[in-house]
Design a protein that fits this description.
The chain is mainly beta. It is built from four helices and 16 strands. A hairpin with a 6-residue loop joins strand 5 and strand 6.
Length: 371
Amino acid sequence: MGRLVIGYWDCPYCDTKGIRGDKSVCPNCGQRRGHVRFYLKGNAQNQELREKDTKDLEYVLQEKEKYVNRNPDWYCSFCETLNSDNAETCQGCGASRSQSDKNYFQMLEHLKELEQAQAQPVSAAPAKRSKLPLVLIAAALLIVGFFLFMNGKVTSGDYEISGVRWERSIQISQNRLYHETGWSVPPGASVTGQKSEIHHYDQVVDHYEDREVQRSRQVIDGYETYYTYTDLGNGMFDQVAHQRPIYKTEYYTVTEQRPVYVQVPRYQTKYQYDIWRWTPSRTADAEGDDQFPYWPETNLQSDEREEERTEAYFVDILNTKKNETARYRVSPTDWTLLVPGSPVYITTNRFGADPCISDENGIPLVQLNNY
């Protein structure tokens, strides 16, 4: 047990604050204390305090501490008054203590349970529906409708095919001799020479040397006293003193052996070799503004060969209303169906994007890709 500290309580009837814990009656309204919670002066949460923070606490005189009953008050089940553990009858209504079964702490737990039960959500009558959600729904529908309209399709017959074009290309490679060096010989190469060269360096410990290194550590610099408090449930608190160390950082120097490294070269055999490689050298190209595409003559030399073949097909679409022509790339299959001079329908979205050749109802027939 430690020192006895006088606690305080607030009157729930007249809201008088800071009534001393050794007083069982409110000095303002005369009501006896009942549903109250004891606390320390300037320390409502009753947490730990350092010694310099205890100056506002009031202590029971040491010569009187031995006469103070440290048991909690008992709680009258009839008039809800807190009574000293020394009293056998309620100071509020005179009821016998034997007819009550709760003390101060049990009373607080009971009140806590009641507060939690009252805090449970209660079903309420339906609130009047706000008009705001309807406004938001209407605005959302307008926005969706706008985007659907803007992304709708537009079909026009003011177009005709004004021309076609094709391009074909064949990549040609030449077998060339290369003179190279390396740490290994690739398949098919012929070695023409070799010699030992530095491949890399390894770090190797050469010796050790002493070096002074600064270190730090936490050491005890002293002790501080702090106090914890236990609510006795009778207007008093039991103060218990504790001590804990105070640390400071101490710096010191030590001598350590550190390795010193040197770079040691490592040698390997490096080869010189000749190797033949197929290398892109030129292209054979053909193009035309008709519908008779062909592959160009390659006229291969003895050290050449054909590689990848590529082809592209285009169509020119004339806007007869604006007298403007645009070129588009199309698939080889679709290109063979397009006849210059033929009128066509063009369908786009309302922004003029994603054009395609369609029928008069906007059903896509040929996809047009920008050139």
